[in-house]
Design goal:
The chain is of the alpha/beta class. The chain contains 13 helices and 13 strands.
Length: 362
């Protein structure tokens, strides 16, 4: 593909989690296939910094709310000045101003819905219906938007975040070296969670699960690792202290070397109670052939085939304990990589996205 398609992404969020990582990685991936990419975001956002680090052209705008005429008009000017073909919006506030700006400028409008919580179905919340196409990150989200938000079935597709199979490849890493880097002994059972420390990720359940497992298996040497940072960090520290499990918990903070961390872990856990699309951390763990326990939040079940991981009910400490106990007692190493590559790799994601770009620009 030649440099013919020009796509402007918009993002209101100031945070840095799965959604923002998806946006940057998607932009880089389609750029590698010849698409020109641009980003409009807030000046103090982390995604601005990440975009600039990856040589992505950035425009900074206020994005003060759904009815921000200054941002809307500025976006319209940016679209025209840069010959943008498609505006791809991501959060609620930027979807309103970005979608309306695209319509005002006479270009295509794609809405990406990352979270799985239901969008207000009121007729006054019509912005998603104006989109020329909708991407979701899971089948549950897609079905919800068709049923409740009046999205036509031929204008919506679930395209989960693609994982780079060349990076998330267990054969590329030495397990002993990865464990040594985390000071893990041979006899330690390393159980980890990789997630921004937000309320819906339910790190509190992860910690109470840890407490129960320590009591259930007094002869086992457990260590629990939390990779990530976020607004609930201080609350999590307090829970750790209150549960008297400080000696078994390691807070790693933000981790850049995720494949190395996954290689070091024995069992991975996702304890979310809501909002997930198809969780990137679960996909990454399965690409690394890890034993995985995940809740049925969002579209996590999209990844389930032939019992390739333990999927459990949300909001249940007992369910998480049972899921991890299954692996502790059976020690089964899952081989899920071939399925993941064929269905959830970056290459698959990019192919689907480019097909949509071409179809809506005909």
């Amino acid at each position: 593909m030649q440099n013919l398609i020009r796509v402007l992404h918009t993002e209101w969020s100031n945070g840095w989690g799965g959604q923002e990582i998806r946006i940057i990685n998607e932009m880089i991936a389609v750029r590698d296939e010849g698409v020109d990419v641009f980003l409009a975001c807030r000046d103090d956002s982390i995604i601005k910094k990440k975009a600039l680090e990856n040589n992505i052209k950035v425009f900074t705008l206020p994005f003060k709310g759904n009815v921000d005429f200054k941002t809307l008009l500025s976006l319209s000017k940016i679209i025209k000045a840069n010959s943008i073909d498609i505006v791809n919006t991501h959060s609620g506030k930027d979807t309103w101003v970005g979608g309306l700006a695209a319509k005002l400028a006479g270009v295509r409008f794609i809405r990406t819905r990352h979270l799985s919580n239901r969008i207000n179905p009121a007729r006054t919340n019509f912005i998603n219906e104006l989109a020329d196409y909708v991407f979701t990150t899971g089948e549950v989200v897609k079905a919800d938007m068709i049923k409740y938000n009046r999205i036509k079935i031929d204008k919506i597709q679930s395209i989960p975040t693609g994982i780079d199979s060349s990076i998330f490849d267990p054969d590329q890493y030495d397990r002993k070296s990865c464990r040594d880097a985390l000071n893990l002994n041979n006899d330690e059972i390393a159980v980890g969670i990789v997630a921004v420390i937000r309320q819906f990720k339910r790190h509190d359940l992860f910690l109470m699960m840890a407490k129960e497992l320590i009591s259930k298996y007094p002869k086992k040497n457990f260590t629990f690792l939390i990779a990530g940072d976020g607004p609930q960090k201080e609350n999590i520290k307090k829970i750790i202290k209150d549960l008297s499990i400080s000696s078994n918990i390691t807070l790693l903070g933000h981790v850049n070397l995720i494949p190395e961390l996954l290689c070091a872990l024995d069992i991975c856990v996702l304890s979310s109670d809501s909002k997930e699309g198809v969780p990137q951390s679960v996909m990454q763990a399965l690409f690394m052939n890890k034993m995985m326990v995940a809740t049925k939040s969002g579209s996590t079940e999209d990844l389930l085939i032939n019992e390739n991981f333990q999927i459990v009910e949300t909001n249940s400490i007992e369910a998480l304990v049972d899921g991890v106990s299954y692996f502790v007692e059976n020690g089964l190493q899952r081989v899920t990589r071939p399925f993941m590559i064929s269905s959830f790799s970056s290459a698959v994601m990019v192919e689907k996205i480019l097909n949509v770009y071409n179809s809506i620009l005909r």
